[in-house]
Structure formats: structure tokens, C-alpha cells
């Protein structure tokens, strides 16, 4: 089932996600719905707070980057199959040079800005079978994970912008929170009673 994506301004996007256990109600169904919702909105990542659940859960699907001609063949091969569930994730380390990448967010449609993040992360997480992993990721995958991880920490990519950039997009953010935006996927707006 395609779920409505929570828009900028909803308090759930600012909540620190709570850890979940193996017996969390309907987890398989939630994951299936999140993948369907993300794919319907042409996203590459989706965190539970973005569908109204303040829990430490996010999904990543880097497969669209498998066709990126600017990447090496090795990178494309890895990305073309990378789909992962992250439960109760904790980033243990961020290392390397900071690099800029133009980010967007399904909860903040029509706004894209360069965000600086470290190139390599070490993360501890549980997969959908609650098997524990500690892995290192870099490049695009690290970037997607960092963005989604921020969501379960109550942080949005717009928080990482300079004060000037924040002022320049203030009006657009206000319009998003009021539902004054057109998107081709279902959204739930904080200031609007009706759903699209």
C-alpha cells in the first residue's frame, strides 16, 4: 500500500526515532509499504518518520545510480544491486573529506541544495531479519544513508544549509508546510486538513 509522505513542517520529522524490537507490530507489512511508497515517489531512500512513524527504521535503494555514466564500472555494479533495510542504526564513525552533493527529499519536494558530508561512514544496524551488521560505506551509498539516518535523528537536510540559503528557501518551505505545492505522489501536510 502506498502511504502518504509527511511534508516539511510536521512535528514527526523532528522527533528522535525510538528503537524497535523484533516483535514490532506488522513490521513486514510496514517495510513492504515503505518500499512501495518510495518507488512510487521515485525516491532512493525513505525513513519511517517520513511516513508518520517516529521509529529508528529506514530503507535505501541505490539501484537508480547503477546507470550513472560518471561512476566507475565497479561503483555502478555495486549500486545497481544495493537495496537495504536499516533498523536501530547507529553511525559509529564518519571519516574522509567532506564533499558536496545536490540533495533533495521526498518530504521537501522541489527544493534541492548542495550539502557537505564526510565521504565514508561506519554504521551498525540490524537488517529486516534482525541480524546485526557493522559495515563501512562510502560515496553515494554513504551519502544516502547519512541523509536517511538524519531523519531518524530528527534532522533534515535543510538544517545543514548556510543561514543565507535557509533564508532564500524560507518561503518555499512555508508553502510546502501549507500544502501549496504540486507533487505526483501522496503527501500529508501539517497545515492542511485534506490529503492529496
Notes on the structure:
By secondary structure, this protein is α+β, with helices and mostly antiparallel strands. The protein has a single domain, classed as Alpha-Beta Complex (Peptide Deformylase), CATH 3.90.45.10. 26% of the residues lie in helices and 31% in strands. The strands form two sheets. A five-stranded antiparallel sheet has the order 2-3-4-5-6, with helices on both faces. The protein has a two-stranded parallel sheet with strand order 1-7. A hairpin with a 5-residue loop joins strand 5 and strand 6. The chain starts with a strand and ends in an 8-residue tail after the last strand. The model has no long low-confidence stretch (mean pLDDT 94).
Question: Overall mean pLDDT score?
Answer: 94
Order of helices and strands: EHEEHEEEHHE
> In this structure, how is the largest beta sheet organized?
5 strands, antiparallel
Range of strand content: 25-35%
DSSP strand tally: 7
If strands are numbered along the chain, what order do they take across the biggest sheet? 2-3-4-5-6
Relevant CATH superfamily: Peptide deformylase
Share of helical residues: 25-40%
Radius of gyration: 16 Å
How many domains is the backbone divided into? 1
Q: Which outline best applies?
A: globular
- Low-pLDDT stretches are none
Name the structural class.
alpha+beta
Roughly how many Å apart are the termini?
Answer: 15 Å
Report the CATH architecture: Alpha-Beta Complex
**What is the tally of helical segments?**
4
CATH topology: Peptide Deformylase
* CATH class category label: Alpha Beta
Amino acid at each position: 500500500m502506498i502511504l502518504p509522505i509527511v511534508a516539511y513542517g510536521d512535528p514527526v520529522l523532528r522527533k528522535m526515532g525510538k528503537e524497535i524490537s523484533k516483535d514490532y507490530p506488522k513490521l513486514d507489512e510496514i517495510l513492504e509499504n515503505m518500499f512501495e511508497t518510495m518507488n512510487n515517489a521515485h525516491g532512493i531512500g525513505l525513513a519511517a518518520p517520513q511516513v508518520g512513524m517516529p521509529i529508528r527504521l529506514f530503507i535505501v535503494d541505490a539501484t537508480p545510480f547503477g546507470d550513472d555514466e560518471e561512476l566507475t564500472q565497479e561503483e555502478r555494479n555495486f549500486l545497481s544491486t544495493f537495496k537495504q533495510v536499516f533498523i536501530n542504526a547507529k553511525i559509529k564513525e564518519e571519516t574522509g573529506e567532506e564533499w558536496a552533493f545536490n540533495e533533495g527529499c521526498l518530504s521537501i519536494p522541489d527544493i534541492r541544495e548542495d550539502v557537505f558530508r564526510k565521504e565514508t561512514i561506519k554504521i551498525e544496524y540490524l537488517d529486516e531479519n534482525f541480524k546485526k551488521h557493522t559495515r563501512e560505506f562510502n560515496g553515494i551509498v554513504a551519502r544516502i544513508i547519512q541523509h536517511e539516518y538524519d531523519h531518524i535523528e530528527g534532522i533534515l537536510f535543510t538544517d545543514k544549509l548556510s543561514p543565507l540559503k535557509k533564508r532564500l528557501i524560507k518561503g518555499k518551505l512555508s508553502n510546502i508546510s501549507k500544502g501549496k505545492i504540486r507533487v505526483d505522489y501522496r503527501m500529508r501536510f501539517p497545515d492542511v486538513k485534506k490529503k492529496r
